[in-house]
Amino acid sequence: TAGETKAEETQPTIKNDASQQTNYGVAVLDKEIIQLSEYLKEALQRELVLKQKMVILQDLLSTLIRASDSSWKGQLNEDKLKGKLRSLENQLYTCTQKYSPWGMKKVLLEMEDQKNSYEQKAKESLQKVLEEKMSAEQQLQSTQRSLALAEQKCEEWRSQYEALKEDWKTLGTQYRELESQLHVLQSKLQGADSRDLQMNQALRLLENEHQELQAKIECLQGDRDLCSSDTQHLQDQLKRSEEEKLALVTKVQQLQSLLQNQSLQLQEQEKLLTKK
Question: Which long-range contacts (CB under 8 A, 24 or more apart) does 106-113 make?
Answer without folding.
Answer: none
